[in-house]
Amino acid sequence: MSAYESASHFRLGTSLIHVGSEPSPSTGAVVPPISLATTFVQTSPGVHPGVSDPNSFGRGYDYSRTCNPTRGGFERALGSIEHGQCVSFSSGCAAISACLHLLPPGSNLLCISDVYGGTHRLLTKIASTNLNINITFTDFDVLTSEAVKDVQMIWLETPTNPSLKITSIKKMVELAPENCLLCVDNTFASPYFQNPLLLGADVVVHSVTKYINGHSDVVMGAAITGKEDIYEKLRFHQNAVGAVPSPFDCYLALRGLKTLHVRMDLCEKNAHAIALFLEKKGLKVIYPGLENHPQHIIAKEQMKGFGGMISFYVDGGIEDTSKFLSKLKVFLLAESLGAVESLAECPAIMTHSGIPKEERVKVGVEDNLVRLSVGLEGIDDLCADLEQALQK
Ligand SMILES: *Cc1c(COP(=O)(O)O)cnc(C)c1O
């Protein structure tokens, strides 16, 4: 087993760069090859090769849906920095779906009200109808122990999308009854800025598509847990349902992960500067790193940094907002987030258009709300771009 196997004593940057990317033992290649084979030669029937390869988790290899060396490398890397065991999927939604399948039919699930749109759709259109799970959406600010009494799963996002609301993970851990699973979608913070498992959560999910891969060229997801029984169930689900990521996507995501710390530090620095710049222009800005953010203190306590996402309100209505967005040149007008290039979008008519207006307005998604995913370009160019697009 490699020296990197017990990664806990390494600094984060060392884990990110070395865990799961150990030189190939047979050739010495510094970048391990992408393992494309779908099947593996057995020495005698039922005896699997690769049992000693850490990327097979002691199981060896037989068929690539069940276990793949490149995928195993990625899972070890993400598991090491999120402090649990990682199971990867072909998208963030597939990872969330696997978590929902942890519940028996008839279970009660309590979900934070301004959850990611895709999660909302999965819960209301699939989990509630096909899996017979009872879904309730609630504002977690005012949650009581009475409200969670008969709940088997709590679904939390912090920060939320796009209102960037922060919920105390510790408080939710205390509130959750025994045998209730607390799942945290940690996509917005990334494992660099927040580690929910260390705060007591049971499962963390990521849309690897966003900060973890970080280059807008892979759709992929992952679930990470510190509990052995949950891990075994997720592994079983991964193989049985088969929504697995391709070796090439795992290779790209592993390569993206190596610079996570550098990318997160810079996007946060850029985001902070832009938040201040927009505030100076007299605009209402939502960014957890600003002292006027309603949950700034909680963010400071549970996160190591405030991330690269900003929301703010343009002066005017939907037309002014569309005009502003169309004038941007460095910021690309697109959905998604978490990559090296800066993106801007209007949630009301893009990412959150599926949510009825009364519902979205309740969580602050007005027609003139703009969401920025701040990337790694030169800060002066980003501010100049916003400046020219804001000009009437
Ligand atoms: C994008 C996203 C997802 C879904 O992930 P996909 O990889 O697109 O399936 C889930 N949660 C959050 C917070 C996201 O931003």
Give short descriptive properties of this protein:
392 residues, alpha/beta, seven-stranded mixed β-sheet, five-stranded mixed β-sheet, 13 helices, 35% helix, globular, binds pyridoxal-5'-phosphate
Describe the secondary structure blueprint for this structure.
Elements: H1 12-18, H2 69-82, E1 85-89, H3 92-100, E2 108-112, H4 117-130, E3 134-138, E4 153-157, H5 169-175, E5 181-185, H6 190-193, E6 203-207, E7 221-225, H7 228-241, H8 247-257, H9 260-280, E8 285-286, H10 296-302, E9 309-313, H11 318-327, E10 332-333, E11 343-345, H12 357-362, E12 369-373, H13 379-390
Parallel strand pairs: 2-3, 2-4, 4-5, 5-6, 10-11
Antiparallel strand pairs: 1-7, 6-7, 8-9, 9-12, 11-12
Helix pairs in contact: 1-2, 2-8, 3-4
Bound molecules: pyridoxal-5'-phosphate (PLP).
Pyridoxal-5'-phosphate is lined by residues 91-93, 116, 118-119, 157, 161, 185, 187-188, 207, 209-210, 219, 221.
- The N- and C-terminal alpha carbons lie at a distance of 62 Å
> What is the count of helical runs?
13
- How can the largest sheet be summarized? 7 strands, mixed
SS elements, strand count: 12
Low-pLDDT regions: 1-6
Q: What would you report as the Rg, rounded to the nearest angstrom?
A: 21 Å
Q: Cofactors and ligands present? A: pyridoxal-5'-phosphate
General shape = globular
Q: Please state the average pLDDT score.
A: 95
Going by helix content, strand content and strand pairing, the class is alpha/beta
Strand content: 5-15%
Give the SSE order as H and E letters.
HHEHEHEEHEHEEHHHEHEHEEHEH
DSSP helix fraction? 25-40%
Strand order, biggest sheet?
1-7-6-5-4-2-3
